[in-house]
Structure formats: structure tokens, C-alpha cells
Amino acid sequence: MTLSQEIRTAFRTCPFCEATCGLEITLKGNEILHINGDKEDVLSGGYCCPKGMALGELQNDSDRLRHPLIKRNGAFEEVSWEAAYAEVEKGLLPIIKRGNRDAVALFYGNPCAHTLAGQLYLQHIIRALKTRNLYSASTTDQMPRHVASGLMFGSPALISIPDLDRTQYLLILGANPLVSGGSMCTAPGFPKRLAAIRNRGGKIVVIDPAKTRTAKAADEHHPIRPGTDAFFLLGMMHVLFAEELVSLKHLSGHVQGIEEVRGIAAQFSPEQVSGACGIETAVIRRLAREFSAAPAAAAYGRIGTNTVCFGSLNAWLIELLNILTGNFGKAGGSLFPQPGHSVPFQGPGGKGWQTGRRRSRVKGYPEVMGEFPVATLTDEIETPGEGQIRALLTIAGNPVVSSPNANRLDKALASLDFMVSVDFYLNETTCHADVILPPPGPLNTGHSDIMLYNNAVRNVAHYSPPVLPPQPGHPDKWEIMLSLSLIISGQGAATDPAILDDFIIAQLVSSAVKKESSTVAGREASELLSILGKRKGPERMLDWMFRTGQYGDGFGKNPGGISLDRLENHPHGLDLGPLTPAIPEAISTPSGKIELAPLQLLADVQRLKTTLRIKQPDLVLIGRRNIRSCNSWLHNLPSLLKGDNRCTLLVHPQDAARLGLAQGAYARISTGTGFVEVPVEISEDMLPGVVSLPHGWGHNAPESRMAVAKINAGVNSNILTPGDVDPLSGNAVLNGITVKIVPAPGRE
Range of 4's domain? Predict the structure, then answer.
């Protein structure tokens, strides 16, 4: 048998979603035969969803771009990398040189968090651009959590995670982890983890407008009116204070602002909020008592609590519920991960964190984590004046499908002077680009989910080397990103990105050896660079992070510690143990304490209070997920599109009857921004007055080259979203949208 015919096995972490499942890939030479879950993976233990099994389909997809494209006379043609980079330089630099760097905007999508290049090299493009116009998918689904963490703990990166494997009581709000795989809670095998809670005598309660797959697996499901989670949570907090159930325990002395919180909670009794949120007074009281009495409890909220007009309040109140019951910073409660690449916490105390260092030009939205809301990207393109966006760089993002008021954004992109996209596909967004730079296939590069392990339910370290050799002549994604950085900064399209990569690591090492807190303080930078020298790009950076992290080998200082060499010898990852308490050392607020009552959040409670008596709309729209889908970028893989149409409108039988809707017939859904027509699926899983349409669909751009997706186009739910935002975080309001529904005229 020749080498090309040999059967071999490779192990790889799935790059599709936040679960980070380990995969076992069987190959014949370089041909992928099949993909299964890696039973020995330290985090996933063999669990794998259909998306991971389809990784080979993405690698081999004939529609996935292999060569750069340039648009000439309205049509795309393949060109060399040298020609593509020259075109980028020709198109971008004149716009930059006209005197306002804000005329160039950057949008990056969720897949950036699933590649080493995106995690480690995006910051260098941002530094090169020096534009205030930064946008990302973070303001479509998660920014409220960062705002709450930043204001309460001093850092927006400090995301607390439910300790699923040890908790006795799990309260889930607006999340469907059995379908999503876990979001901002990296926990592969969520079904097994939830089953284990019940098997050890624990309890799971789900608060959600829909009876989701997760809700069906729980002990209790209580449907809530979309966008009213803050009322429900404040009702629970009212009970905790009124019945003297608040118990800070180990957190005593590490918090401040409890009296302010007590005063807020006093204004929202269960009797006052029950009508607004739709959950009975007795249920609110019982759940508050159960949560406080549990030996270990954790509250966890996600998309449904973030993508509403009070998203930041919801994130804050969920943290407060964990804190007030003594479950924050406790085994079985809510904890901060400390993964393999992390450095020890340096608190208590620090500079703290704030938003609003600048405001968006058109609508005055505050900056959050350096970004403006993607909901105002269209405003900044359409509105003339100094700082108007005239060029756009997108990296692994499809905002025409994923962002609010999608039709308007689609038209705005067509008006740009120049656009560059780094993307696998010619899709609904990249069809507007003048240049498309495709990254290599997912199996041609090394991988480690360092960003997602910051949210993992167990401390781990992992690295997956490339499964397949590089495509000849095709730069890695990190090289593409550094080439863009060089072009933008005026260093020239022909400059070797390896030069910049060497400079970046040299600067990093030189800075570290001068810091007293570093594990390599006082060492010679040249010595460390020599040790790192056999690698380049993300792998060199990753080796540095692991070696200098709290579990690292310290370049010989701790011989049993982690290095990339050691991880390559452990293809299933290294288990570094369960999450551990880190209070107060994780807290970096100026006071060194958890700030329970940030002024911005207290003020927003007053905005919430004004809505308490407002009449609820007759019909509102929410989104939903499917385990075979991941936003908009996996709809070209045949195995994931098998079965029934999943882009349907879920409607409760009562609503279907009063609206004249029939199973399988088309309904027209409309708002002030547009309408879509979609098949109806009648389901008692929906709360009456609430309908559900999945996001990520609408693959009908004539110019796109995604054959399977076009056949299964579906409709874009963001045609219906008006572009409202949560004012504290800038997060788009994508759930609880008031809609009008009628039978689609002229359609069977």
C-alpha cells in the first residue's frame, strides 16, 4: 500500500460553534473517509453534533473559494494573490489618504473566534486601520454580557460560567443549549451534562417563550413574554430581600452597593411584575425560594435575554441573582474559567472599565469595547459628512443576513466606493466586494479555541495541528490578515507578512521580560525568541501564550508545565481540572470589590419601570436555532440541509386560527421595515401571541455562488428587524419584534 492509500486518523477540535467538540477524522491519504466524535477528548468525551461530522463537506465544498476574486465590469474573475493585494492597495489607500481614516470601516463575524488567525491577528488590522468605525457580530448577540461584566467586575472579558458538572439547580433563561451547543458557556455534550444534573437529584428550570428542546428536557418550563425577563428577575430579587433569603456567604466583604439593589428590588414585587412577564406570582416566589435554598445553584441566560431592549439589565440581574444567593464564585454555582493559556488574576483592584469613550457620528451611540453597534452601520454609510464610511473590510462575516434592517444595509453596501472581504464564500455580503480573499480550508490550518476556552465549564488546554497539507501557493489566513495590515499601514502590497510577524513576537517578548509580574521577567529576549524560533505565525504566538501562562513551563522554569510541544503529544487535550473560585483576585474594579449597583444600570431600571404598564403587543416575533445550522455560513453543506424545511414560521394553534393560517401554507410577516413570506408550521410549543422564525437564512442574492444554499434559500428574518438597540450595550434588538401576519396573498 502506498503512502497516499494509507488509512490514518487525525484528531481535531471542531471550529463550527462554541461547543469545541473533539473530532476523530479517518482519512485515506488526504481523502476524508468519515468523521466521528473523539471519545478521548478531555472536554467533549466523544460528543459531536451533525455540524462537526460535516466538516469534511466544508473542506471539499466545490463552491468554497480557492483563489482570490476581483470584480471587473460587474463580474468576478479569479486572479493571483499578487494581483488581489495590488487591487486592495489601489482601492483602499486613496480613500485613507484623502485625510480621514474613519472613511474605512471594519466588520468581523463570529467565525473569527473559531480560527487562530482571527483570534490572534485581527487586532493588528484594527491597529493599522486606526478607524473609529469598528463593528462586529458581538452587537448582534452578546454585548450585554460584556457590559454587565465590565461594570460589575472591572473587565468585559470576565464572563462567569455556570458550573454545570457540580450544580444542583440550574435556571436557564432565553437559551437553548441542547440545540446551540452552549453559547458563552463552552460545554460540549450539553445533553449529557443536563441529564447528569437530574440524575444526581438536581433540578433544571427553563424560562423561555417557546417550549424548546432544552425546555422539554427540563423539570419545569415557564413561558415568558419576550423582552420581559428583567421583570421576572426583579420579582425574584424582591422575594429574596423581602423574605430575608439574601445570603452573600463567602462574598461578604467583597461586594458593595447591596442597599441600592435592595431599594431597586423593593419596587418590583411579584404581584407587580407578573402581569407584564406572564409568569404567575406564586411561581416567581417559589422559584426564588428554591434557588436560594439549593445547595449549589446557577442562573444562566443567553441569546433571548441579550437581544432585547433591556439586554444589559438582564445580564446584570442574572449575575445579581447568583451573587445574592451566595452562588457566585462557588463550586456548583457561577465561576470564572482559567484555561491553559491564561495568566493568573492580578486583583483585587484595577482601573475598572467604562463605555462611551466616543460616540457614533449619526445617532450618538456610545462605543463599547471599541465598537459601535452594527445596527448603525447603515446610518454611517448613508449619511454624508466628515467621517462618512466609503470603504468596508469584512472578515468572516455576513451582515446582510445577520444584521438588522437587512434590505437597507444591502443597498448601502452597493453604494460604497470600495469593499474587501476575507471569506470562504461568494455570499449575500461578499457579492458587494471589489476583492474577495479566501482563507485556506479549515483542515489546512492548525487550531485552538483559546477565546472559547475562556468560557469553558472546565479548565483545559488544546491544540490541533493541520490535518491536511497547505494548498500550494495559498497563504494561511494569518498571512492574509498581516498582508492587509501592511497594505493599510502603507508598507506595500509586496511586503512579506513574515517580517511583520517576526516584529510582533519580538515586541511581545521584549515587553514581557521587563514586567515584574511575568513568568519570564529578567530573561534575555533573544534566548526566548530562539526557543520559539522553530515556529511561525499563530503557532509561535500560541506556544508563547501557553509557556508564559499560569500552567506553562516558563521556558524551563516549570519543566512539567504546558508548551505547544507537550500539547502536540496530547492530541485529545490536557484536562487542567474543574473551575475554581477566584474572588477577590479576579476583580479589577477601582474598589477591588464587585460593584452590585453601577450607576448606568440603576438609571436603566427607571427606563424599564416606565414600560411596566404598557400594553403588550398582540403578536411578537422571536428567533430560533437548529442543531444543523450555525448562523448563515453552513447552509451550503448538503448533509446539514437534509430533512424537512427548517425555515418556517412557528405559530400557536390559537394564533393560527384567529389569523387564518394553515399548516404548510404561506404567511406574510411584515413590520415597518419590510416583509417576508414563509411556510407556516403550527405548534403548541409556542406561547400564544409569539411566533418564531429562524435567523441566518435568505440566500437569494443572484450573484452568490452557493448552489445548495440557493436551493434552500429560506427568508431573511432581519428584513423585519428595525434596527433598535439596547442603549447601554448597543446590542441589536432581534427578539420581541412587533409583527403583523396575514395569509400570503396569491400563494398556496
Answer: 1-60
